[in-house]
UniProtKB/TrEMBL annotation:
It holds the Pfam family YegS_C. GO terms for cellular component: cytoplasm; membrane. GO terms for biological process: sphingosine biosynthetic process. GO terms for molecular function: ATP binding; lipid kinase activity. The keyword DNA-binding does not apply. PANTHER family: ACYLGLYCEROL KINASE, MITOCHONDRIAL, SPHINGOSINE KINASE. SMART domains: DAGKc. It comes from Rhizophagus irregularis. PROSITE patterns: DAGK. This is DAGKc domain-containing protein. Residues 102-242 form the DAGKc domain. Keywords: ATP-binding, Kinase, Nucleotide-binding, Transferase.
Length: 465
């Protein structure tokens, strides 16, 4: 919090005061085509991108509210009365505007040109780029040309020149970046954070960082990259046959996987395609028989809720549950091909409608599937809805309840905190397994959590609920 600081400047031959107090910049501007009262301007320090001096003028770049949810880039330029006083004022405001964040970041940007129905490149250049420029950020841009292109580059890229890697797309490019970074020989020495610009059809990570209202806002997300600091998150290690890959978001078998992957050609319909896919799967009475074994840490929803509240309401620096443990890429529980320690795990055998695991609370806009998911608790949230004694209408009701997370209170929903699980599909040759929204081979797979293994850019060190 800054003490009161005032600077006199001229605006259209009229002297006005630029006041900076309690991290708020305030001044008055003459209303266009209006005689009389001036318009008061108030800008939080967080929204100030840069303050510079140039040719006896002070120039302020900031994001200001356009309406309740939108931000607009604005530049204010004033004539100086006292250049020495202006220098002190500028330095103080810039320091308060960035606090612990690095100024003028140099970014490696991946843009998926077919992301967001082909609009990702336009979204970046028209909205995000001018904001980065106003904050004196620089960037090196790659337009991805094929599947796993971002993974291939992230795996070999010299990271030293960059302050962050930025994805301008949906969650698929983030998945590629994570897998590229974690498959590097120096993965454990790599701490470069990942920033997210929501330019895809699904922007779950951005919604988790900024909330349901702001998660699809490119100006809010760009500001988060400019002003944010690294936050460590857990990542899931998945094995299938002899393959290993990583997921930051979700793992899915059952109706939601069908609704996601089988309607991939309908991505332009956004969230409505999941409803269509789910209804189709229900009408076709598809079989989701499987064997599930899981390393359960907690299965009582009230204790899960209480632990979540305790952690969420703590400052990030006070969370010490796994903070002192060294990072590792070694699977504590082996692979899908190992028999132990599966023998000691909790086992479920049968047919179900929903087998859904997540490391993030929001899986898409208006879908708070895992309200107790934490970025770095070392655990995975796992939700199961069994098929017996539940109607198809009730299944639809459960999925609709994701909107306000009321599904966790339904008796048909079993909600667990687990360290690991193994799922083996049965009685079906062809089906869908979705990992971070991407289609995976329809084979048995095993998942465990690797604590605090990747950094993402966050302002407050928490996921939004």
């Amino acid at each position: 919090m800054t003490e009161f600081l005032q600077l006199q400047v001229k605006n259209e031959d009229k002297t006005i005061n630029l006041s900076f107090n309690n991290d708020i910049l305030s001044f008055e501007m003459k209303k266009k085509n209006f005689k009389g009262t001036n318009k008061p301007i108030s800008i939080p320090a967080r929204n100030i991108l840069s303050v510079t001096l140039n040719d006896s003028r002070i120039i302020i770049n900031a994001l200001v509210p356009k309406d309740k949810l939108k931000l607009k880039l604005k530049t204010y330029s004033f004539e100086l009365n006292d250049e020495r006083a202006a220098q002190t004022w500028k330095d103080t405001v810039n320091l308060a505007a960035y606090k612990d964040a690095k100024k003028a970041k140099h970014l490696k940007v991946f843009i998926n040109p077919i992301g967001g129905s082909g609009k990702a490149n336009k979204i970046f250049n028209k909205i995000a780029k001018p904001i980065f420029d106003a904050a004196n950020c620089t960037y090196d841009i790659t337009l991805t040309e094929h599947s796993n292109h971002a993974k291939e580059i992230a795996n070999k890229l010299d990271l030293k020149p960059y302050d962050a890697i930025v994805s301008a797309s949906g969650d698929g490019i983030i998945h590629e970046i994570v897998n590229g970074l974690l498959s590097r020989p120096d993965a454990l020495e790599t701490d470069i954070p990942i920033g997210v610009i929501p330019a895809g059809t699904g922007n779950a990570l951005s919604i988790c960082l900024l909330g349901n209202d702001y998660g699809n806002s490119v100006p809010h997300a760009t500001l988060n990259i400019i002003k944010g600091v690294p936050m460590k998150i857990d990542v899931c290690s998945i094995t299938q046959d002899e393959e290993r890959y990583f997921a930051f978001m979700s793992l899915n078998y059952g109706i939601l996987a069908d609704g996601d992957i089988s309607t991939d050609h309908l991505r332009w319909m956004k969230d409505s395609r999941f409803v269509l896919g789910t209804i189709q799967a229900l009408l076709e009475n598809r079989n989701y028989d499987c064997e599930l074994a899981m390393k359960v840490v907690e299965d009582n929803i009230e204790r899960i809720r209480q632990e979540y509240n305790n952690v969420y309401n703590s400052s990030p620096s006070s969370i010490t549950d796994i903070q002192d443990k060294p990072r590792t890429l070694v699977n504590k529980y082996g692979t899908v091909n190992d028999s132990n320690p599966i023998k000691e795990w909790t086992k479920l055998d049968g047919d179900g409608y929903l087998f859904f695991a997540g490391k993030v609370p929001w899986v898409s806009k208006n879908n708070l599937a895992f309200p107790f998911a934490l970025p770095s608790d070392g655990l995975l949230d796992l939700m199961i809805v069994k098929r017996d004694k539940i109607s198809k209408t009730k299944v639809i009701n459960i999925l609709q309840a994701f909107n306000d997370a009321s599904h966790i209170n339904m008796k048909e929903v079993n909600y667990y905190k687990v360290e690991a699980f193994r799922l083996t599909p049965k009685n079906k040759e062809n089906g869908y397994i979705s990992i971070d929204g991407e289609k995976a081979p329809f084979k048995p797979f095993q998942v465990e959590v690797l604590p605090k293994i990747i950094n993402i850019i966050s302002v407050n060190g928490k996921y939004s609920t």
